[in-house]
Amino acid sequence: MSTPALDPALIDIVWWGTRDLRVSVHRARGGRGCPSPRAPYGLHDPLARRLHPRCWDDGCLGVLHQVYALTIERLDGGTRAAPVTTRAAYARRVVETVQVDLARRERVRRGLPAKPTRNDGVPGRVNTALLQGNPDPVRAAWLVTLFRLLRSWVCRVDRVTLDWPVEAWAAQKSAADGRTRRPGSSETTAEIRADVAEVLQVAERVAGSRWVNDTLRAPLGTVVLPWPAWEPAPAMPGADVPTNAEWSILVQRYAAWRATGAGPEAALHEACRSVFGVSPAGDVSDLVADLESLAVPPRRKPGDQSVDQAHPMP
Predict the structure, then answer these.
(1) Which of 51, 108, 196, 201 has its C-alpha lying 20 to 30 A from 60's C-alpha?
(2) Are 279 and 307 in contact (CB under 8 A)?
């Protein structure tokens, strides 16, 4: 059975629809954002020639591959046939749904709740206690909001700290009650921390210390590794071997090693170790020949005419 061809227009939709998620995997690994200017395999870069190596190394390309594959599966396997005129809009909604599902799956894999901000069950009982225990309705509503923020924060995709974001929450509290607070001041910090302590105390009274520890305290102190755990994905289905991202990166790194003065085989071994994690085995003469033709510009012999000289413009 033949491999289905790629849909460049859909790849563009997935690329831009996953921007926040892709940026988060770069930032989790020390980057500032996605360095690739166009969607690889999309309408404006069909051969992925402008794909930055960091997108492969950090897992950005893995995000694109997984969301694209799941989106195709839902578009082709769904019972509802969307008219052609609305396919793009429908695909955007599917991309959003796929990302939510993947985020839930990743949280479950790490032992976190799939839907951390849901308000039924135990969280619903805590919300009721917070509302009933405060005569001031504005403060009671703020504490309910803060309880949701606590549960959301420990599951954030880009969280790299063991502390609560009290400054950000101070701004949200000011928006809720209309009072002005000085960000970063000791008074404001102490106020928000006191609110957090009150919410945790109520939650422990209603749900028990074990629930609070499993749901809030333990995740806050442990889930600080890069998220999500996207691994470099295999070549995009439908891409020929000479044009997939892995091969493109190998060519680039081979050329870089050759430019430093390394010999062909030494450059090949270094490039393969950086891309695949291992050195090639067996006879590599054919592979070296291919890489030399792609990565190393041919040397002009004395007396050779340039292209312009051999074929002058009329």
Answers:
(1) 108
(2) no
